Amino acid sequence: MTQSFSFDATDLNIVEQLRLNGRANNQQIAEKLGLTATTVSTRIKRMEDANQLRVVAVSDFSAHGFNVLLRISVEVDGRPASDVAHELADLPEVFAVHIVTGRYDIDMLVALHDFEDLAHFLLDRLSEIHGIRSLTPAIVVDICSYQFDVAPIEAKE
Fold this sequence. Notes:
With 157 residues, this protein is α+β, with helices and mostly antiparallel strands. It has 2 domains: 9-49, Arc Repressor Mutant, subunit A (Orthogonal Bundle), CATH 1.10.10.10; 62-139, 2-Layer Sandwich (Alpha-Beta Plaits). It has 5 helices and 4 strands. It has helices at residues 9-20, 26-33, 37-49, 81-89, 116-125, and strands spanning 68-76, 94-99, 106-112, 132-139. A hairpin with a 6-residue loop joins strand 2 and strand 3 (106-112). The longest helix is centred in the first third of the chain and has 13 residues, at 37-49. It is elongated, with a radius of gyration of 20 Å. The model has no long low-confidence stretch (mean pLDDT 87).
């Protein structure tokens, strides 16, 4: 069960320190903020328990040999979009799936090792999923912004 939670200035400062260095331990964060390690630990645990904070590792696509990124818009027919979306999300090449409004029902982001994988993914892998009426793939040619700390967090006064 999610607890009720409000961020204060100390929580925001702890989150900021984790954004700057996700490997920082509680003692290092405490020293930078003038707190005790116990206070930092307690607050991080409270934020995690309230599902307001999750510390994760992020890796670079190209460092792992993924050199092709695609955005694919999917139009669904004859099946609930949520069912198709969940099946798409199970594909290892797919790293994000969103049910959206507008002309398409689903948008997804796909990482492939190289262009030789493109035809196999589009024609073979996706053809196994029933309910896809049409696909509109777009190759990502440049990444202008790639942020994971985008959730706006405000302290309660």
